[in-house]
Design a protein that fits this description.
Layout lengths: L1 E3 L3 H12 L6 E2 L4 E2 L23 E2 L2 H9 L5 E4 L3 E2 L5 E2 L2 E4 L2 E5 L6 H7 L1 E5 L25 H4 L6 E6 L3 E5 L6 E6 L5 H6 L12 E2 L5 H10 L8
Parallel strand pairs: 1-2, 1-5, 5-10, 10-11, 13-14
Antiparallel strand pairs: 3-4, 6-7, 8-9, 11-12, 12-13
Helix pairs in contact: 1-6
Length: 231
């Protein structure tokens, strides 16, 4: 059961469903469970009526979020404007809260999802996005590291992976700091560090991600023929 945001998360979840996980069920924040995503018709919003195409069920927003509290959802898959060394996400505002430089969409179901599922985040890798401390914790992950998530009362979930255009990241089991697991082909360690606002610890076993196969690329381009989310 995957709680997917629109854009890259939805595209990736749909690709996984068609190639590897036929039993994968996608949930939308708007209350739709198990919709059929048609090629070329990716919904631009979780409230778009195309989300309901051949869906298993359509619930109210509160009811679908209650599924998280009941433990029915395995993975939360979304993006973010800012992320810090402990995986906390900001989608609320950038800058001083009294006079922010930029106002963002806000939490929606982001806090519920990050508090109660194992998270995957997909985002563009830029220094202003990967910061030491987010300006506001919209979606809590490992908070201040180590056991602070559990100590705060969040007993389930956490961050599983961060996928960017430069690399794939996990988190240290003890400190809960972000660490590179694999670099995308052609990407250097210096390039990743230069685009990150905090110190990264590379290890000897930091690998290289597998490039997508021609079959995967073909299916992605079928799902997104207007190239809204892929090159």
């Amino acid at each position: 059961m995957v709680f997917a945001g629109v854009g890259i998360p939805l595209l990736a979840a749909t690709l996984a469903q068609r190639l590897h996980c036929p039993g994968l069920t996608i949930l939308f924040e708007g209350g739709v469970i198990g919709a059929l995503i048609e090629p070329g018709k990716l919904p631009p919003s979780t409230n778009d009526q195309r989300c309901t195409q051949r869906a298993n069920m359509v619930l109210g927003s509160a009811e679908v979020l209650l599924l998280l509290q009941r433990g029915y959802v395995d993975v939360g898959f979304m993006g973010g404007a800012q992320i810090d060394q402990y995986g906390n996400l900001n989608s609320s505002f950038i800058g001083d809260p009294k006079k922010p430089k930029t106002r963002l969409p806000g939490t929606g179901g982001g806090n519920d999802i990050s508090s109660l599922t194992n998270m995957i985040v997909a985002m563009q890798h830029e220094k202003q996005r990967f910061v030491e401390h987010v300006d506001f914790v919209t979606s809590p992950i490992w908070l201040r590291g180590r056991d602070t998530r559990r100590e705060s009362g969040l007993l389930a979930g956490g961050m599983f992976r961060i996928v960017t255009d430069l690399a794939v990241f996990g988190f240290d089991e003890e400190t809960r700091r972000m660490k590179p697991l694999a670099l995308n082909p052609g990407t250097t360690r210096d390039q990743v560090q230069d685009n990150t606002g905090f110190k990264l610890e590379f290890t000897h076993d930091t690998g290289v991600t597998e490039p997508p196969t021609e079959h995967e690329l073909s299916l992605l381009r079928t799902l997104d023929p207007e190239r809204l989310f892929i090159a």
